[in-house]
Amino acid sequence: MSDPAAALASLLRAASIQDHDEVLKAANAAVKANKSDLQAQHTRLVALLKLDRFDDALRALAEAGDKLEKECVLEKAYTLYKTGKLDEAEKLIKSTSEPTRALRHLAAQVAYRAEKFQDAAAIYRLLPDEGEGRDGEENDLKINTLATSAQLEWEGKGHLLNEEERKPSNDVLEAFETAYNAACGCVARGDLSKASVLLKRARDLCNTNEDLTDEEKKAELLPIMVQHAYVLTRLGKEAEALALQKSIVVADIPEAPTRVVAQNNAMALGSDEQNPYLTSRLIETSTSLSGNDRMFGYQAAVLGRNRYALDLQAQKFAGVESATAHKISSATSPTASTEIASLGVISAAAHAHMQTGKDAIREILPMLEKRPTDIGLLLTIIQLYVQTQNPGPALSLLQTFLKRLETATTPDHEDVRYAPGLVAVAVSLYRLQGRQSSIRTELARASKHWRAESDDSAIPLLREAGVELLKSTSADDLASAGATFENLVSKSQNDKAAIAGLVASYATSDFAKVEPYLQHLTAVERLTAGIDPHALLEAGVASVATTTAPLSKKRGADADADQASKRRKKKKRLPKDYEEGKQPDPERWLPLRDRSTYRPKGKKGKKRAQEATQGGMVKEEMLELVGGAGAVKVEKATQGGGNKKKKKGKK
Fold first, then answer.
1. Where is the composition biased (Basic residues) (predicted)?
2. In this model, does residue 543 exceed pLDDT 80?
């Protein structure tokens, strides 16, 4: 009988071995013969990883004991990474005193899947400086760096990237992987036209790649096509997007997360013609992921909102309100998280049964008393007030909310109070009412807060605050603007807008601060070259319309006159038997029985007419009606005539 260990060694010496099942069988036989054979155990572990049997690999590590785990740190960390145990993998890598280059690559991959994109980007920046790696590693680093940069853009942290990382060079057009990842970065930044060009380039490069088989090309092309269909939809080219989407066979996509995205996008494109109940059922069956196959946070949030939208269309209001309220209450409150804020909007829509306008405001205002720190609910009410042309109550609600946050003592409350989104809403509402001083006060306070923080997410807010404060004539506002631009310049020496703002802030008060930055600005002579000052003077000064909201007009004599003139005059109504030129009956205003033409019908009526006058002789007189309406015959009894009887009174 042959020795299993010798058979395994002979098998491993064969350089052309590609059958990992055969290697696994030999390794199992060797381990069965000698459980202390470390080389056989290591070989079995690698064979299991090559066959993507990661759960079996973990069991093999546990059976082998601590000795193999200490020897195979890279293999164990990779197994933990592939089974979705990212925290354990990260802890294992950090416990290594001197991590190898392969471990650092894996550490970057673990950080990427754990959505710690800043850590991943830092590792990818350092790897090229640590020396040359294996063949093809430079291209892999470029691909992974572009993917990490795109994820940072999606998180809204693109300002943390270098200028070269945000605007890659033309060498990204040489391979379909780099072109695809560069396109994803453009999508995250909102540069959809450039993204469409890069995706088309990626498809062409993939189709013409001679190193890939037809099956491999198909597998690589499908994610590119899914992304391109999304970009075309965002560009408004729905016909092209729908045609491209129909050419995608979702079941053929190898990666489970990409299949979920493709299925969601296909349903979203045809949502107008689909049954919401059926669509909801299809999404539930197609979004089941396990292990390392999971969506990124922003992708999962979008899919969750889509499911809630379908439930609202199916009028499942109670279920949606209950589910969103539970998630909101379980989150840290208050929070400026966009995911939790969007749940507040959905919860309000469910509570109001999808109503809008004043009806919706009446329904959801009581909710704000129960959830006073729900930013999504607050912004929904503010938006409804603005849509109904009533910004006053909206600003009052926002001011009450901000004051409540100011009285809190925790630093998290202060970060939420000066969140760039809330500050922007406050500035917009102040601008609607023409309150320029309130705008500058709000921006000055926000600038003071974020200058003391190390977080770079508020850089756009600081830039806008500095520009607005520069417009003021107040010395305090100008000083605040100068401090704001100094902070921006300290973070980026290439920010010309910040340098110009710094110079403008201190030009008249502290020239020593300005002088070092003058060389970074374009000379005035160059900026004014080609401008004719005499022509400008002759053209005059253009006046800019103010954005102040018009005051309401008080009602008075002029207003009443204008209102009366706008009233619609009623059309004159004529009788059915009206004939033009015929004189109308002068007695038409009298009751029927009082007219001269009245004749009672029947015997009793004629008798009553004859006996209508009692007593003496009747004298006919003609009396004229007031207003010239004609003559009416009046019968008047003479005095002394008739046989009158006196009524007997009481004695």
1. 598-607
2. no
